[in-house]
Amino acid sequence: MGPAPAGAENRGAAGEPEVMEPALEGTGKKGKKESSKKHALAGSPVEGLLQPVKLSRAELYKEPTNEELTRLRETESLFHSSLLCLQVEELLKEVRLPEKKKERIDTFLREVNHRVLKVPSTPRTELTDQTWLPAGVRVPLHQVPYTVKGCFRFLPPAQVIVVGSYLLGTCVRPDINVDMAVTMPREILQDKDGLNQRYFRKRALYLAHLAHHLGQDPFFGSVRFSYTRGCHLKPSLLLRPHGKDERLVTVRLHPCPPPDFFRPCRLLPSKNNVRSAWYRGQSPPGDGSPEPPTPHYNTWVLQDMTLESHVQLLSTVLGSALGLKDGVALLKVWLRQRELDKGLGGFSGFLVSMLVAFLVSTRKIHTTMSGYQVLRSVLQFLATTDLTVNGISLCLSSDPSLPALADFHQAFPVVFLDSSGYLNLCADVTASTYHQVQHEARLSMALLDGRADDGFQLLLMTPKPMIRAFDHVLHLHPLSRLQAACHRLKLWPELQDLGGDYVSAALGSLTSLLEQGLGSRLHLLAHSRPPVSEWDISQDPPKHRDSGTLTLGLLLRPEGLTSVLELGPEANQPEAADFRQFWGSRSELRRFQDGAIREAVVWEAASMAQKRLIPHQTSSTGEEALAAAVRCYDDLSRLLWGLEGLPLTVSAVQGAHPVLRYTEVFPPTPVRPAYSFYKQLRERASLLPRPDKPCPAYVEPMTVVCHLEGSGQWPQDAEAIRRVRAAFQLRLAELLTQQHGLQCRATATHTDVLKDGFVFRVCVACQREPQILREMRSPEGMISLRDTPASLHLERDTRHLPLLTSALHGLQQQHPAFSGVARLAKRWVRAQLLGEGFTDESLDLVVAALFLHPEPFTPPSSPQVGFLRFLFLVSTFDWKNNPLIVNLNNELTVEEQGEIRSGFLATRTQLPIMVIVTPQDRKNSVWTQDGPSPQVLQQLVVLAAEALPVLEKQLMDPRGPGDIRTVFRPPLDTYDVLIRLSPRHIPRHRQAVDSPAASFCRGLLSEPGPSSLMPVLGYDPPQLYLAQLREAFGDLALFFYDQHGGEVIGVLWKPSSFQPQPFKASNTKGRMVMSQGGELVMVPNVEAILEDLAVLGEGLVQAVEARSERWTV
Amino acid sequence: MVARRRKRGERDSEQGIPSPPGYSAIPIKFSEKQQAFHYLYVREHRVREGTKSSWPQKRTLFVLNVPPYCTESVQLQEKPELADSPKEPKSKFFHPTPIPGFQVAYVVFQKPGGVSAALVLKGPLLVSTESHPVKSGIHKWISNYTDSVPDPEALRVEVDTFMEAYDKRVAEEEAKAKEEDGVPDEEGWVKVTRRGRRPVLPRTEAASLRVLERERRKRARKELLNFYAWQHRETKMEHLAQLRKKFEEDKQRIELMRAQRKFRPY
Q1: Which residue of A465, A544, B35, B128 has the fewest C-beta atoms within 10 A of its own C-beta?
Q2: Where is this protein found (chain A) (predicted)?
C-alpha cells in the first residue's frame, strides 16, 4: 500500500514518542495547517499506525463454521486475496450513489420531466429567421454556413425518458450526471432533415427555446449549455437543482429524433449527408467526382436515434447481475484515473458498459462474476484485441443488407458496432486514444499478474495525469494554427464531415505524422482530448480555438533513444539533445519529414521552452562531466589493480561516491588551481586557503574503497588494524607517486590522489574489520557477534556503500534518465534547505524506486517526468506504515517482500521514520538511520505536496505566469532566525537556484596549468560553520541550509528546550539561571546565543536576523 | 592559561547575578563588541569522601557552561565526569579533535588560593582582547585546515612505534600461551586452545549456532510429513489459521485506509 494523505504522517508522528525528537513547532504547525485543508484529521494518533495482529491461539484454531469456509473459498476464487476483496468493496462504497441521494434525485427528475413537458410552443418560422428567440438566450451552435433550408417551430417533447448509467445503477460519484432523452415531436422535423446539418440546427434551436424557459424557472439552480461528449454539433442542456442540492446532480437533456424518423441506410459510413455545394459554397470539381462520405456526421445522427435502444440493451445485460455493475463502476474509475474518458473521442463509461455487454454476449464474462473479475476480463480483452484492425460488433443479425465491418474500418480508426449494425460506437475514438487504452490495459494486467501487495492502489487509486505519465509533453498553441494546417494538408472532406472542427480534422494527420517521424524511438503517442466546457445560455458557444491547448504526450523507448544518440555526438542528455536536434532546426526536421514542417515548428516553441526551464539547473551539461569523472576513476582503478610492491594484493576497487553512480548534483570538473590565489605549503605539496582571498573553489574528493585481500597477516585487534591500514595508506601514496607520478597525500584513514585534475580519496579496507569490531567476549569466554556503532558505521562505508554505488551505476546504464531525475530531486530537496536531513544515498534510492517500481506508470525516460513522480511519491507514500522496498537487480521475491513487510510491522518502533529496504539491507535501513527526523520528513512531504500541483500547472500551461524555479525557492517565513552569509566565503555560490549574476574568483585557471600541488580539499566554510552551530546549539535549535550556494541559514528554536528547567550540572549548555517566581530555573541565554552566531562565523556571517515576532522568551 | 587571561578582563561588577546554589556566576563574552553575556558557573571541585577523582582536591576549579569559542589550553570535556584522568595524549592522527560546543572545564591551580580567588571573580571576562586575540570564524577554519594537512613522516613513525609495541605484546602472549599449553592448572584443568596440538572448534556463538542448525536439518530430513491423520488435520488447521490471521491483518489495513480516506479515488 503506497499512498497516504498528507495528514496521516503528521498524525502518526505525534503518536510515536520512540522515534520522536523534540517537536519542531514551526514546521509542525505548518504541516498541520496545510494538511487539514485537504483532509480533516481523523482518528486518534495510535490509529494511524499499523500494529502487528495478535490473535489468541483459541481464536486462530477454533473450528470453522460453514459460513466462514464458504467466505474464504469465495474470496480465493473471485478475488486475488481477501485484502483486494475488502479494498474493492470499500472503493465501491465510496463511489456508489447512496439510496438517500437517489430518492432526492428521483424527485428532481420527476420535476424536470414535468416542467419540460409544459414548455409552450412557438409559431413556425424559417430556420434562418431566428428573431423569435428571446434576447437572453443564444443558439448553442456555430451556424456555418448560416443559410439552410427548412422551417422550425417548438412543440413540447413527445417523450422524456432517462437513459444512461443512472438508470443502470452504474454511475459513479462524484459528478453524478443523469442523461435524459427528449424526443422531439415528428411535426418539427421535415424530410431530408438529415442533410446539411438541418437536423442539428433544429436540435440546437429546440434546446435554445427549452433553455430560455427553464432558465426563467427558479426551480433550477443553473441552466447551462455543454457539448455532448465534446461533439460541437450536438449541444445539450445542463440542469442543476436550486439551493444546497446544486452539487447533487446534473441533468443533461439530449434532444433526439422520433424513432425510425431517419432511415439507417442513408447514414452508412460511405454516404454523404453534407453537400460540398452547401458547405463550401461551391460545387465539387466539375468532373462529377462523388461527394466525399461524411461518416462522423452520420454517426452523430445515428447516436441520437439509438439512445433508447442502447439503454434497453444494457439494462437487459446488466439487469440483476451485481458483479457486472460493480465491474462497470470499477472500469469507470480506472478510466477516469487515466484521464481516458473525457472529451471528444474519449473512452467513456458508456463505451465500457457496451464492451461488457459484448463480452457477455461472447461469453467471456459471466453474470456471476465479481466486479474484480469483470474488470480483469475487460482489461485482458482490451490488452489483447486491437480494434483498429479487427473491429467487433454487437449485432447478431446476418442480414446481407447490413454494412460490412470493412466499410467501417475504411471510415473510422476504431470499430465497435452496436446491436443495430449501423452505428460505430467508437467513431470518435482516435487510434492514438485506443492505443493508449490498450497500453494502460497491458500495464494493468502486468500489475495484476505481478500480485503486488499494493496492486489495488496502483490500479484504481493512483491518478495518471498526462504530465506525470509521459516523458515529454508538447503543447500546441494557438490552436487556430491548425486551421491553416488543415488547409495546407487539404483536409477539406474531413472538415466538411466534422462540421468545421479543424482540431479533430488535423489531429489524425498530426499524430500519424509524428509517429512516422519519431519511429522506433516512440513507445506511445497520446493526445489530450478537447475538454467539454460549459457555457451560459446567454453566451455564444465556445469556438474550437478556445479549447485551450492541444497537448501531445510522448512515451519514449530508452533503447531507441540511445541509438539516436549516435547522430549527435555532443548530446549530453540523450533525449533532450535528441529532441533539440530533431525539432531545433528545420533542416534537421526536413531530413525526417516531408513537406509538413509547420506543425512541428509550432510545438517546438512551447515544448522547448518548458524543457529548457526545469533541467536548466542541473542537467543541461551534466552527463558529459560525470562520464569524464567516471572514466578517470576507471583509469585509477586499473592503476590500483596493477600496483606492484604492496604487501597484500588488491582484492576489489569500488566506487563509493555519488559521482561514481552518476547522481552528484553538480558534477566535478578537473581542478586547475592558480597558485597565486593560495598559500603554498611546499614541504607537503599542498595548497592552503588564504584569509585575505575569497574562499577557494570547493573540491570534494571522490571516495573509492580499496579492499585488500584477507590474510593471516592482519592483526586480530581493532586498534592494530587501524595502524596497519594507515601503513597501507602511506605505502599506497608512495607507490602511486613512484610508479605513476601521481600527486598523493596520505592520512591515517585515506589517501587523496590527484589524477587528471580529479581528486580521489582511496580508503583501504580490510574485510574482517567490521567483524572484529563486533566481537564481544561473554564472561564464559564465548565469543559472540554484536553490532556496535563503530562496526555498523564501518560496514556501511566499506560494504553497503560500494554495493549501492555499483547497483545504481548499473541502473543508470539501463535507464539513462536516472541520473537526471536523481540530481534534480536532490537539488530540489537541498534547495528546500532540507538536504542535511537526508543522506545522499536515501534520496538516490527513492529515485531508484521510481525506475524499478514505476507502476502504474512506465519507467521515466526524461528528468522532468521523473521529478514530478518523485514529488508525487514523496508526498503520498505512507512512510509510517510501509517500508519503501527498492528491489535492486530484482533480487527479492514476492514472498521475501512479504516477509520484509511483516518484519517491518513487528519492529516498527525501533526503525527510523523513513525506512528504505534493499536486497542488501533488508532490516536496518542503513541510509536513513541518522535522519530524517519525523518533522523534517513531514516538512518534505508538505513541500512536495505543494510543489507538485504548482509545477504541473506551470508545465501544462507554459504561457501562464510564474517560473519553474518557483518550486525550488524555499519558504523562509517559517524560521525564527535567519543567518545571512557573505557570498565571498561560499565556495559553491554559483550553484544557487537563482544563479548570481556575479560571484567571486575562486582561484581556478581556465587553461590546464601545472598540477603538482594538492588543491584545497573539502573546505567549505558554511559547512564548517554549521557543524559548529549544531555542536554548540544542537539542543536548542535546528539549522537548515542549502549546501549548493545557499546564502542563508534558517534557524528554528526547539520549543521544548525553551521550557524553563531546574538546574542540572550536565545540562547548562548555553543556558542561564533566572529566578522565576522565587525559584531558580534555567532558560536559554538567547541574547548571548544570537551574538555567538555571529562570533562563531566571523567573516562568513553578514547578518543575524532575529525575527522576534515569532518567538518570545 | 585561559583563566589568567580572563582575569585581565575589566571588572564591571554586576551585583546579584542569579546562580545555582553552591556556584557563583561569572559573566563572560567574546570581546568588547558583544552586548550580552554568557555565564560561567563555577565552584570548587569537591567529591564525596572515598570517591576517586583524578583532579587534585582543593586546587581544582569546576567550571560549567564554557562557550564554544574558548578552545585553548585547559582540559575541556563535554560532560562533568569524575574519573577522567589526564590520560596519555591521544594520537591526533587516529583521534581527530572534536568540534567544540559548550563545555565543562576543570581548572587546576598551582595553589589552593587560586580557586578561592576565582570564586570571587566578578567578571565580566573577555575571551578575545586586542593584546591577545582568539581566532574564530574564517581565520579559525583556515588554521584548522592548515593543521589538518598531514605529515606523513610523523604518521609513519607513530604507526611503527605502535606496531612494534603491539607485535611485542602479541609475541609475549603467544609465548605464554605456548608455555601453558597442555599444562594443567592447580585443579588439574587443561586449557584447550586453537593453537594446541589438537585444535578444537573456536568458541564462538556463530559456530555453536551452525552446529545446532545442522542438527535441526538432520532431524527434519527424517521426519514424515502429512503421514498420520492428525498431521493432516493439523496442516489444514494451520492453513486456516494463516488465512484468518491474514484476514485480520487485512481488516486492520482497510480500517486504517478508511481512516486516511484512501478510498476516495479522486
Answers
A1: B35
A2: Chromosome; Nucleus, Nucleolus
The 3-state DSSP class for residue A314 equals helix
Order of strands across the sheet with B24-29? B76-77, B103-108, B60-66, B38-44, B24-29, B125-126
What is chain B's Cα-based Rg? 34
Whether the CB-CB separation of A387 and A426 falls below 8 Å is answered with yes
Min Cα distance A441 → chain B (Å) is 18
Does a cis peptide bond (omega within 30 degrees of 0) precede residue B133? Answer: no
CA angle A494, A495, A499 (to 5 degrees): 120
- What dihedral do alpha carbons A280, A283, A288, A291 form, nearest 10°? 30
Phi, psi at A249, each rounded to 5°: -155, 150
Residue B106 DSSP class: E
Contacts of B144 in chain A (CB under 8 A): 1024
Place of cell 458508456: A350
How many CB atoms are located within 10 Å of the residue B266 CB?
Answer: 11
> What whole-number distance in Å separates Cα of residue A478 and Cα of residue A473?
16
Kindly report, residue by residue over A951-981, the tens digit of the pLDDT. 888 887 766 666 777 888 888 888 888 999 9
Residue of B nearest to A459 (CA): B265
Burial, A570: exposed, middle or buried (Cβ in 10 Å; 0-12, 13-18, 19+)?
exposed
Q: Tell me the three-class secondary structure of A630-676, residue by residue.
A: HHHHHHHHHHHHCCCCCCCCEEEEEECCHHHHCCCCCCCCCCCECHH
Please, which residues have CB within 8 angstroms of residue A906's CB and are 6 or more apart in sequence? A52
> Domains of chain A, with CATH numbers?
96-282+291-296 (3.30.460.10), 320-464 (1.10.1410.10), 468-527+541-556 (no CATH), 565-602 (no CATH), 625-939 (no CATH), 975-1106 (3.30.70.3030)
pLDDT tens digits, one per residue of B176-200: 877 777 777 788 777 766 665 666 6
Instruction: Look at residue A275 and give its three-state secondary structure.
Output: coil
Alpha-helix residue ranges (DSSP H) falling in B181-265: 205-222, 229-259
ipTM score assigned to the predicted complex:
0.80
Do B67 and A1092 make contact, defined as CB atoms within 8 angstroms?
yes
d(CA A438, CA A350): 17
Chain A positions touching B77 (Cβ under 8 A) are none
Chain B residues near residue A53 by CB distance under 8 angstroms: 245, 248-249, 252
A323, A368 Cβ separation under 8 angstroms: yes
Domain edges within chain B: 24-81+93-148, 151-185, 225-261
Q: Count the alpha carbons within 13 Å of A295 in the hemisphere toward its beta carbon.
A: 22
Q: What is the pLDDT of residues B33-84, one digit of tens each?
A: 888 888 888 888 777 766 666 777 777 888 888 888 776 544 444 444 443 4
Q: What is the DSSP string of B22-79?
A: T-EEEEEESSTT--S-EEEEEEE----TT---SSPTTTEEEEEEE-TT--SSS-EESS
The gap between the terminal CA atoms of chain A, to the nearest Å, is 44
How many other CB atoms sit within 10 Å of the CB of residue A966? 13
Q: What is the grid cell recorded at A660?
A: 561514481
What is the phi/psi pair of residue A650, to 5°? -75, 130
Tens of pLDDT, residue by residue over A322-361, are 888 888 988 988 988 888 887 777 888 888 899 998 998 8
By Cβ distance, the residue of A83, A1024, A1088 closest to B253 is: A83
> SS3 of B222, please?
helix
Long-range contacts made by residues A715-719, C-beta under 8 angstroms, separation at least 24? A715/B166, A715/B170, A716/A772, A717/A772, A717/B166, A718/A769, A718/A772, A718/A773, A718/A790, A719/B162, A719/B166
The alpha-helical segments, DSSP class H, found in A61-168 are: 66-78, 82-95, 99-117, 165-168
